[in-house]
Amino acid sequence: MIFTQIVVVGAGPAGLSAAIQLKRSGLEVLVVEKALPGGLISNGWNVENFPGMPPLKGEEVAGRLVEAFDEMRIPFVKDEIIDLSKHEGEWILKSISEEYVSSNVVIAAGTVPIIPNIQGLNDLPAARIHYNVSEMLLTAQRLCIIGASDAAYDQALTLEERGNEVHIVQRSISTALPLLQNEVVRCENIDIHIGIEISGISICDHGKICLRVKGDDNFTMDFAHILLACGRKPSPLYRSEIKQSGIYFCGDIVNGLFRQAGIAAGDGLRTAMKLLRDIGHAPSN
Ligand SMILES: Cc1cc2nc3c(=O)[nH]c(=O)nc-3n(C[C@H](O)[C@H](O)[C@H](O)COP(=O)(O)OP(=O)(O)OC[C@H]3O[C@@H](n4cnc5c(N)ncnc54)[C@H](O)[C@@H]3O)c2cc1C
C-alpha cells in the first residue's frame, strides 16, 4: 500500500498541470500513469493552438510538458488504476498489484476510443488494429483509417509523412477542420473513400486485412493495418454519480466536446486550485 496526500491519475496535459500546481503549493503528490507521460497530444500532426508554444508535432508538445513536469521532481509511478472507492474518509485506488491511499484524488485519465460494431473486428490480431498513430511506427505499408473526424484526417497526415499509402474510409462526409481536409487532399498518398459502409472485416488468404462493403458482396478492400478513429468517450474511471468530497475530475474526461490540450492543461490548473481551496490551503499565485 502506498500512502500519499494526493494521487493524480493520468499524465496528459490535465494531470501534469494539476500535479505541478499541487506540488508548488507544497503538497505531497504522486502521479500514476499507465503509459508514457504526455497523453493523447503525442498523436497530433501539427499542434498550432497550445498557448505559448510555436506550432509543433504532438510528440514535441508532449515532450515539453513532460520536461516541465520532470523539473518539479514529482513522484511518478507507471501503473494502471482499475478501481476506485472510498473507505473511512480515504480514497483507495487499486491497480492489479498495488493500492494507493490518499484523502484527495485528481482523475485526469482522458478518454478511450469508441470501438465500432463491425462484424469480425474482435477476431483480428491486436497487433494489426490501432487506435493511436503514436503506436504505429510503420513505413511503406498500405493502411486504412476508419473515420471522418479531425482525428482521422490528422493521423492520416502523420502516417503519410512516415511513407505509407493511406486510405481513409468513411460512411459520410468529413467533419474534420477544413485546414486538415485541405492538407489531406493535397497529399498524393492519401485516398479518401466516402460513402463506404463496412459490413465485415477479416484476414484474407494472403494475410491482409479485408474490409467487406455493405451492398456489394464482390467489392473488398485490403490493408496491412487498420487505425480506428471512430470517436472517443470518457475513461471508465469517470463516475458521474460520485459526489463525495476529495475526488476531482479534469481534462478530456469531463470536457465533453471541448477536447483540446490547452483546455485540459488549464482545467488541470483550475482543478488543483479548487482542491487547494477545499482543503483550506491559501490560494497560490
Ligand atoms: C490525433 C489527435 C490530434 C490532436 N490534436 C490536437 C491539437 O492540435 N491541439 C489540441 O489542443 N489538442 C489536440 N488533440 C486533443 C488533445 O490531445 C487532448 O485534448 C488532450 O491530450 C487531453 O488531455 P488530458 O490530460 O485530459 O487527457 P489525455 O491526454 O488523454 O491523458 C490522459 C492520460 O491518462 C492515462 N490514463 C488513462 N487511464 C488510466 C488509468 N486507468 N490509470 C493510469 N493512467 C491512465 C493515459 O494513458 C493518458 O496518458 C488531439 C488529439 C488527437 C487524438
* Total E-strand runs: 19
Q: Strand order within the widest sheet?
A: 4-3-2-8-19
- Between the first and last Cα atoms, what is the distance in angstroms? 34 Å
- Class derived from helix and strand content: alpha/beta
Number of domains: 2
Principal-axis shape? elongated
Residues in helix, %: 10-25%
Walkthrough of the structure:
With 285 residues, the chain is an alpha/beta fold. The chain has 2 domains: 2-112 and 232-278, FAD/NAD(P)-binding domain, CATH 3.50.50; 115-228, FAD/NAD(P)-binding domain (3-Layer(bba) Sandwich). It has 5 helices and 19 strands. Strand 6 and strand 7 form a beta hairpin. It is elongated. 38% of the residues are buried. The structure holds flavin-adenine dinucleotide. Residues 9-15, 32-35, 39-41, 43-44, 47, 49-50, 80-81, 108-111, 151, 154-155, 235, 237, 251-252, 259-262, 264 line the site of flavin-adenine dinucleotide. The site of flavin-adenine dinucleotide (FAD) has 37 residues, from helix 1, strand 3, helix 3 and helix 5.
